[in-house]
Each structure stands twice: as C-alpha cells, then as structure tokens.
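Exercise 7. Given the encoded structure of a 144-residue chain, write a plausible sequence.
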C-alpha cells in the first residue's frame, strides 16, 4: 500500500478579507481633522492666513472624508507636512495650560511660555497627589 502526500492547497482568501490594494483611500479621523484645524488657527494667529481663507479651509477640513483631502489644506503652511492625527504629549500639555490660562487671564492673554507649562503640570500633579492623600486619609478616618 503506497500513500502519497499531496501538496497542500494554496490558501484562499475571502473577498471581504483580501489584502487592501494600494488604491484604497483611508478615511480621516476626527483627530486628524482637528489637527488640520489647529494648524489653520495657528496660521491665522501668525498672520499667514486671513479669516476668510481660514474659514473656508476649516469648513473644508470638517467636511473631508479621506486623509488625502486634508494634506492640501495645510500644504502651503509651515509644518504643513503629512497629517498624523496623533497629538504629542507636549501639545496636549500646552493645550491644557492654554485653556487654563485663558480662563484665568481672559481672551487677550498671551500664549503661555514653556516654563509656565512646566509649572502648571507640576501644580496639577501636586493637586492630584493632594486629592489622593485626602481620599486615603478620609477612608482611614471613616473606617476607624
């Protein structure tokens, strides 16, 4: 009795899970749209765009569906490279400090410096540590 081992059949893929072709357009995320709008607002603040142009581009940014439609909106601006959509920690920190700065000093306040950002983050950590300390101390007092 002889047994022959046949070659395994090549794997087949279902059309729904076939590898994406290079021509597939990627949809833009809300974070990517917000990144473009943030760049446009910065350009207005620097005097690179007037309000009408910024409004037009902002409207277009919020209406886009695909990533490749976002890049031309900031291509003629400094730092107008590819839209990543992922904010950096320094950008998040600066955005939080900026919003707090505006609440305290009003809409005419200047942009916070790096030293002010670092101080604000340290104060936030101290506030969180104080809150945790008080919560633990309160739980110990109530439990005793």
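Solution.
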């Amino acid at each position: 009795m002889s047994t022959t081992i046949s070659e395994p059949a090549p794997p087949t893929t279902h059309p729904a899970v076939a590898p994406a072709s290079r021509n597939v357009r990627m949809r833009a995320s809300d974070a990517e749209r917000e990144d473009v709008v943030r760049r446009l607002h910065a350009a207005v603040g620097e005097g690179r765009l007037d309000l009408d142009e910024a409004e037009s581009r902002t409207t277009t940014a919020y209406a886009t569906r695909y990533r490749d439609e976002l890049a031309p909106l900031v291509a003629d601006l400094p730092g107008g490279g590819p839209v990543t959509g992922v904010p950096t920690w320094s950008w998040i920190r600066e955005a939080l400090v900026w919003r707090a700065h505006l609440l305290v000093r009003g809409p005419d306040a200047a942009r916070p410096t790096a030293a002010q950002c670092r101080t604000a983050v340290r104060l936030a950590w101290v506030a969180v540590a104080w809150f945790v300390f008080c919560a633990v101390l309160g739980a110990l007092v109530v439990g005793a």
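Remark. The two ends are 83 Å apart (CA to CA). Students should compare their own answers with the one above.
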